[in-house]
Write a structure and sequence with these properties.
The chain is mostly beta strands and 141 residues long. The protein contains 2 helices and 5 strands. A 3-stranded antiparallel beta sheet has the order 1-5-4, covered by helices on one side.
Length: 141
């Protein structure tokens, strides 16, 4: 009788999406040969770098708390499934794990003025936080 488990369960999480901002950067795009004249009447060829200003997105070090980094999750999931396969398990289920946040507001000021109505608003969102992966021992099939 084998002590190896027939089923295994692993989980992985995803990071929140990194926050980015646009930043203007100077990038060298080539060089140009120019003649530089000396005070004594001679000249000399000099290579001068040529620059171009570009806009790039750079990470700020903060994260967007309303967006999961799905690319990160896909990479983690792929690695987990490949490891389980190499260990002799077939993946039989992948279950997403969600979490969320919400906010609401109610204004009952009109009720204080003798009216029987008020108003309110609310919103909510859910994020994929990770996945639970279940594998079945291939030898048991």
């Amino acid at each position: 009788m084998s002590t190896r488990p027939k089923y295994i369960t692993n989980w992985t999480y995803t990071s929140l999406m990194p926050e980015t901002k646009e930043k203007k950067v100077k990038v060298q795009v080539g060089t140009e040969t120019v003649e530089k004249k000396s005070l004594l009447g001679g000249s000399k060829a000099i290579e001068q770098p040529q620059y171009e200003t570009r806009t790039e997105k750079v990470e700020t070090g903060n994260h967007i708390n309303t967006m999961s980094d799905i690319g990160d999750l896909a990479d983690r999931l792929e690695n987990m499934c490949n490891t389980m396969h190499a260990d002799g398990y077939d993946v039989i289920s992948v279950i997403p794990v969600q979490f969320g946040n919400f906010n609401t507001h109610a204004d009952k000021s009109s009720m204080q003025q003798g009216h029987s109505y008020g108003f309110g608003w609310g919103y909510g969102f859910g994020l994929t936080r990770g996945v639970i992966v279940t594998g079945k021992d291939r030898a048991e099939s």
